[in-house]
Amino acid sequence: MATVTMAQAYQQGMREEMQRDPSIFLLGTDLFDRGGHFAQVLGLGKEFGPERVRDMPISEAAMVAAGVGAALNGMRPVVELNFIDFAFGAMDEIVNQAAKMRYMFGTPMPLVIRASSGVALYAAQHNNSLEALFASFPGLLVALPSTPADVKGLLKSALRGEDPVIFMMHKRLGSVRGEVGGPDDLVPFGQAAIRRTGSHVTIVAYSQMVVKALEAAERLGADGIEAEVIDLRTVMPLDFATVTASVQKTGRALVVTEAPRFASVASEVAATIGEAVFDWLDKPVTRLAARHAPIAHSPTLFESIIPQVADIERAARSLMAEPAS
Amino acid sequence: MSALPAGDIPSTRELPIDITGLDPVAMRAWLRMMLLTRDFESRLDALSMAGKIHGGMHLSIGQEAVAVGIAAALEPQDLLACAHRSHHHAIAKGLAPDVIMAELFGKATGCRGGRGGTMHLADMSLGFLGGNGIVGAGLGVAMGAALGAHLRSSGQVAVGIFGDGGANTGRTWETVNIAAVWKLPLIIVCENNMYAVETPTETLTGGGSIAARAKGFGLPSYAVDGQDIAETFRTIRTARERAATGDGPTFIEARTYRYEGHSTGQVINYRTIEEVREWQETRDPIQRLRLALDDAGELGEDAFDAFVASVRQEVDDAVAFAEASPEPDPLDATRQVTALDLGMGNL
User: Fewer CB near the terminus (10 Å): N or C of chain A?
Assistant: First the structure.
């Protein structure tokens, strides 16, 4: 089977769903001709026309509000925010409107907000990690796929569900290729994937950190340390059961995130492991996260802020080390 | 602020409203609806102070003609979203006083089962897309609903209502812009009650007036006397026809006045009693419609008194219903968060 990139997987999933469901339409900047700033909807403008692939002014609040209102009136809008950082211009619409419509008004809110996320170039204002923040607001779902198959499958679940979804695609996963599922292959929210099995240490990650964790796991494997790598895929809902089952097997847990550690998804996972399977732990849970700084321009600087493969490898080896007695 | 001395206050009769060509049966219904809204709201402060209603509320007493005039100009399929001062719009759009009152009491029988409260009344089946606790947010919701109506060719028109305070938020103008560019079937109503909480709006608003500002976005914009239900109705009706025929949105600044404070129990020391009395005694929307109907021979004294008595009974019944209704099941507090089961039950 042919492999596709993350953006192509998104295009494919979106095209199939738009063909299947006429209520799905796109809102965002530079979508119709350009196909989005990440080519994620390339070709859809020509195929579905300007009514369903709608170019908007750079008015983030109005963009999301348009989605919220249209979702209240029987449509399934997909808002393309470009960079997740631009969500700040629509924070009320996301958090106080979309997230709470079901609770306040008893109505479905089938709104998907896609954005590019993760740490890459362009410095402090384009590289915020907002997944933990969004996951903390009851009412929102948050997806962070790390493979083309998950991009397509999670997008389909989002577009067939009734909840507002923040769909975050890592900027540095653009070149990842992989096979994808068919028109009705859905990846459910709240179901982690075990990317590598191992019995010695559990490494929990999501988004681009999965790629780094797998690389670290290969290096560890060369020394006979078998790491189990879990890809959370969605952080709301979060599949704690798969995580705790793995930790019950390995007795050691390393939770990795590219976000600053404070109040991060890694903190949440680590705390839950501590509460749920403390008696199975051979070592305290380790969190490996970004250092507490905005993201710098220079790669030398920003790479020093976020976890690297070597950091993951080192942290895992540290968990494997016998305690000094 | 110009305040007339008490002795110079003219009577309502000096500011007549023109009801030419309007249906007397409909207008009598408007009069009753305004009376119902006012009676309903006039009970709320006391119920709040007595602890029956949890927290304060934003009363719309004095602003009834805006809500009833708008709702009267709409078709049943039309949609409406408004702001934090929402009771009058909820009633005018058809929510029953008993389920609103029960909602304010936080009871299980409330229109949102106690989840919503005063700022989040809603009934999707009536096209009432809710009040909104965030200034300016309701307009965006209505704009999106209008986009949905356009895409579905549903024939619906949406109305987005915000206050003079909301006219100074950025998102309001983001929304006006896109509605105008896309010619959405939207009616944009700024319900200008002259005060952004306690600050006179004229001291905060550049561009001459809110209606004047809107013109820059390339859509028709009107300022209407929001205490004149006939003018309000006609203007909204024209805007609805324009929206429904694909000609796009209309901006309407309805100038009105709230007789009470911004919220329950607030001491008013930012305006004079003379100013309030001037609005009450010369421009009261209920009295102006009553006089117009009376002058036209379409309303006897008995009819007005009968309306007053019947709305009083309806609100009495609503209070009794709310009082007698059960509290919500505490387990309901975590229901309807998402459609998907998040598995958070044990956490």
Answer: C
Domain that residue A263 falls in: 193-320
Q: Is residue A249 part of a domain?
A: yes
- B69 falls in which pLDDT band (50, 70, 90)? very high
User: Hey, what are B83's tokens?
Assistant: 């702001």
Same domain, A138 and A269: no
Q: What pTM was computed for the model?
A: 0.95
Q: Is the ipTM beyond the 0.90 threshold?
A: yes
What percentage of chain A has pLDDT greater than the value 70? 99
Chain B positions in Cβ-Cβ contact with residue A158 (cut-off 8 Å): none
Q: Where are the domains of chain B?
A: 22-322
Q: Express each pLDDT in A110-167 by its tens digit.
A: 999 999 999 999 999 999 999 999 999 999 999 999 999 999 999 999 999 999 999 9
Distances (CA, A) of B317 to B30, B32, B242, B285: 21, 16, 40, 25
Average pLDDT of A90-106?
97
A160 and A28 inside one domain:
yes
CATH of domain B22-322: 3.40.50.970
Chain B residue with Cα closest to A276: B347
Best probe of the A interface among B173, B174, B184, B346, by most A CBs < 10 A, is B174
pLDDT value of position B262: 85
Phi, then psi, of B158 in degrees rounded to 5: -110, 145
pLDDT of residue A323: 66
E strands of B266-346, at which residues? none
Q: If we measure between CA atoms, which residue out of B127, B129, B103 comes closest to residue B117?
A: B103
Chain B interface includes A18 (CB < 8 A): no
| A160 and A36 in a common domain | yes
- Is A220 in the same domain as A299? yes
In chain A, the percentage of residues whose pLDDT exceeds 90 is 98
Among B112, B144, B177, whose Cβ lies nearest the Cβ of A104?
B112
Report the number of distinct structural domains present in chain A.
2
pLDDT at B2 over 90: no
Q: Which residues of A touch B124 (CB under 8 A)?
A: 72, 105-107
Find the distance separating the first CA and the last CA of chain A, reported in whole Å.
54
At B269, is the pLDDT very low, low, confident or very high (cuts 50, 70, 90)? Answer: confident
- pLDDT value of position B11: 65
pLDDT-derived band at B346, boundaries 50, 70, 90: very low
Question: What b-and-e string marks burial along B199-217, b requiring 16 or more CB atoms within 10 Å of the CB?
Answer: eebeeebeeebbbebbeeb
Asked about A126 being catalytic, the answer comes back as yes
Q: Order of strands across the sheet with A201-205?
A: A193-196, A227-231, A201-205, A253-260, A286-290
* A86-91 CB contacts, 8 Å cutoff, 24+ apart: A86/A60, A86/A115, A87/A60, A87/A113, A87/A115, A87/A130, A87/A166, A88/A60, A89/A60, A89/A61, A90/A60, A90/A61, A90/A63, A90/A64, A90/A65
